[in-house]
Structures are given as structure tokens and as C-alpha cells.
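lol forgot to send this yesterday, sorry. C-alpha cells for the thing we talked abt
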């Protein structure tokens, strides 16, 4: 299975990236034949772009596309000498990139809310060096929209003055989420929302899900591949979604609104605590082992500061987990009210929540389309409030009360 098989419904993007990987291979080969670097090999240098920006809707696969491209750049398949497409998925280069162990591919992401300037400066220094064994030194920045202002300015320096054999791969939801000075120096690739049919086919082939449940999960995921997979294989994820979709039926009175809001926030908090139980303790134990700290003994020099920094990252990760859980629930609510609006206008096409058709029909018959639009606006306003660090319970309570008012 090639690295490109993970890109669902992105045929145009696969074609562009495959062509770029072939051009990159030709550029390096030409430079080596002439005894020069890629940047000194004349016209061939223009065949490979040093910086790429992958954008698209949530779950479309921006990071997957960037990782596949990184693997294709490092592909060592013998078939390449016969004209094969880079990115075989089986060679040592592809395997180590996909497993995250390739020495010349740095994968950058944050569990917290932002990527700081210190981390980015280290990356820019690393980008100035040549690859140790692969053809290219690749730096993949997931969630580039989470860069702080200082970190983005540090990244700009690396993108402005690229090393001849370094490729930057940046992933963000949209072009507007990246500084204009950075995006103007990148080649833009926009991924589209994959069709429900394509996502369902992937779930059947790769996860062994039956066609019926796979199609239902693909519709409910609304184009988000990861969410669709979770709904298809995780019973707990399906139960959480069903609980969220009960909210439109529970906001008939103020008490129901407040209870629904509290339950939603408590669920998000429980998810964050569950992650902390499984991850935080292991990270702390690994840190103690790295410093050689024995149980009950005095902490070695420097360990206290490292533990404090780790706790800071863990706290930030817990906050992000709560936000992501709430955001996923809000996306389910948006999908519900979009289906209600489609029923009220008599629009054709499949419904994302067809498995909750009785609830959709009940809400659609209870009021006009104008009320549905106001409820959609209330959900969107809640998402914006959470982005502005409004207390989650206050933001969700305001939303559920607005859902009741219609």
C-alpha cells in the first residue's frame, strides 16, 4: 500500500504531490551528477518548492498529506529507477517517515494551545543543516495556526532563507490562519472535504466495518475522516454523540437548558481527566527515570524545573482536550440543525443524522426556519466564545438558553 492511499478523496492533491516528489528526486540526482548542491544545479532548483502550505476543512487530511509527501521525498524504492512513483510505502525511507523515526524528518505538533518561539528557533537552526542520510531535511509543522506571533516571525526567517536541501511543510485550517508574509512564500495546496462514499469505502477496506454502519458513520462525521473512524469503531464515541443530539429535545425549559450545559461540560472534563490518567503519569515517570531519580530519594539537580515545565504542558494539554471535546459536540449540534433546516426547506440530499430522523422531524415541525437559523448562530457564537477563553460552562449555558428561545 503506497503512502498516497491514506489520502481519501484527494486525487488532485495526490497528483500534484507525486509530480513534486518526482521533480525533487530529479533535482537531487542532477545536483549529485554535477557535483553540486540542489540549489546550485541551475534550472532544476526551480522544480522543487522549499515550503508548502496544506489547508482544508477539519479532518480532510492536511497532516496526512504532508506526512505522505515527506515519505515520498525520502522514498528509496528500487522501482524509482524504472520510473515508479515515489512513496511506495514499503521501503526503509517510507517506513521510517510514517513511523516517526526518520532522522531527517522532524514532526512538530503541540498538545497545548500554542507553539512557542523557543521551539521554532530551534527548528530554524536545524533547517540550516543538510540532511544526514535522506535526500531532504523535512520539517512538518502540524497546526501552524497555533504559532505565537514571535514563533511565526521566527519561522518566517527560516522560510525566507531556506537551506538548499530543506523543505518546510505547514498545515493549517485555512490560508487566513497563517501570516501573509509566510503564506506568500509557500506553495498552497487546498484539500477538499471527502465525500461520504469515499470515507465509507475507506472504513470498509481498512477498518473492516460493515458497509451500512460505515456509511452512517461517514455521514455523521461530515467529511472528517478521524471522527468518522471513531464513530465507526468506538461505541463510547457513538454514545457521546447520541447524548449530544438529545440536547435539542431537552431545552424546553430553563432547568433542562442548564442541566444539558452542565452535562456537556462535565463530559469534556472527564475526557481530559481520562487522558491525564493514562498519559500524565507515564510522562512524569519517564522524566524521573531520565534524571535517574530513585523512589523516595532527593530529586537530582535540574529535575524540579523540568517537572514544573512538564506540569505546565500537561495543564495546557488538558485545556486543549476539553476545548476539542466541546468543539466536537458543537459540530454535532451544527450538523443536527443543518439537517433540520434542510427538512424545513425540503432540500434534497442525504442527511448527516439520518439515524436520528424522528428527532429531526420533531424539531423541524416545532418552529420556522428562522428559529433554526438563530439556533445555528447560537452554536457558532458558543464556539467563538470558547476561542476567546470564556468560561466553558457560561458559554454553553448561554448557548442552550438561546436554543430554547429559538
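and heres what i got for the seq, position by position
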Amino acid at each position: 500500500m503506497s503512502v498516497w492511499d491514506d489520502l481519501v478523496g484527494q486525487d488532485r492533491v495526490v497528483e500534484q504531490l507525486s509530480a513534486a516528489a518526482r521533480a525533487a528526486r530529479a533535482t537531487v540526482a542532477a545536483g549529485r551528477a554535477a557535483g553540486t548542491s540542489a540549489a546550485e544545479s541551475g534550472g532544476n532548483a526551480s522544480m522543487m518548492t522549499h515550503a508548502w502550505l496544506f489547508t482544508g476543512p477539519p479532518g480532510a487530511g492536511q497532516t496526512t498529506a504532508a506526512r505522505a509527501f515527506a515519505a515520498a521525498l525520502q522514498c528509496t524504492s528500487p522501482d524509482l529507477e524504472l520510473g515508479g512513483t515515489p512513496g511506495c510505502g514499503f521501503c526503509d525511507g517510507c517506513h521510517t517517515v510514517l513511523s516517526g523515526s526518520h532522522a531527517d524528518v522532524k514532526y512538530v505538533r503541540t498538545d497545548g494551545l500554542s507553539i512557542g518561539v523557543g521551539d521554532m528557533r530551534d527548528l530554524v537552526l536545524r533547517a540550516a543543516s543538510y540532511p544526514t542520510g535522506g535526500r531532504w531535511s523535512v520539517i512538518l509543522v502540524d497546526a501552524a495556526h497555533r504559532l505565537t506571533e514571535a514563533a511565526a516571525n521566527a519561522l518566517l526567517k527560516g522560510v525566507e532563507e531556506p537551506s538548499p536541501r530543506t523543505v518546510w511543510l505547514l498545515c493549517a485550517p485555512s490560508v487566513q490562519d497563517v501570516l501573509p508574509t509566510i503564506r506568500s512564500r509557500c506553495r498552497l495546496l487546498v484539500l477538499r472535504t471527502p465525500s461520504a462514499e469515499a470515507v465509507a469505502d475507506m472504513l470498509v477496506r481498512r477498518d473492516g466495518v460493515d458497509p451500512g454502519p460505515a456509511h452512517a458513520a461517514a455521514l455523521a462525521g461530515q467529511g472528517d475522516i478521524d471522527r468518522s473512524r471513531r464513530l465507526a469503531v468506538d461505541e463510547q464515541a457513538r454514545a457521546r454523540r447520541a447524548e449530544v443530539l438529545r440536547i435539542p429535545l431537552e431545552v424546553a425549559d430553563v432547568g433542562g437548558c442548564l442541566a444539558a450545559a452542565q452535562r456537556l461540560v462535565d463530559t469534556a472534563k472527564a475526557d481530559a481527566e481520562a487522558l491525564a490518567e493514562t498519559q500524565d503519569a507515564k510522562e512524569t515517570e519517564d522524566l524521573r527515570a531520565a534524571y535517574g531519580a530513585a523512589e523516595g530519594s532527593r530529586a537530582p539537580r535540574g529535575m524540579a524545573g523540568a517537572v514544573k515545565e512538564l506540569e505546565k504542558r500537561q495543564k495546557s494539554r488538558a485545556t486543549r482536550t476539553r476545548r476539542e471535546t466541546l468543539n466536537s459536540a458543537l459540530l454535532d449540534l451544527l450538523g443536527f440543525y443543518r439537517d433540520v433546516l434542510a427538512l424545513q426547506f425540503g432540500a434534497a440530499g442525504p442527511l448527516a443524522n439520518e439515524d436520528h430522523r424522528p428527532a429531526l422531524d420533531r424539531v423541524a415541525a416545532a418552529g420556522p426556519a428562522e428559529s433554526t437559523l438563530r439556533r445555528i448562530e447560537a452554536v457558532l457564537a458558543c464556539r467563538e466564545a470558547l476561542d476567546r477563553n470564556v468560561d466553558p460552562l457560561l458559554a454553553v449555558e448561554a448557548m442552550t438558553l438561546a436554543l430554547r428561545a429559538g
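The chain is about 60% helix and 5% strand. anyway ping me if u want another try
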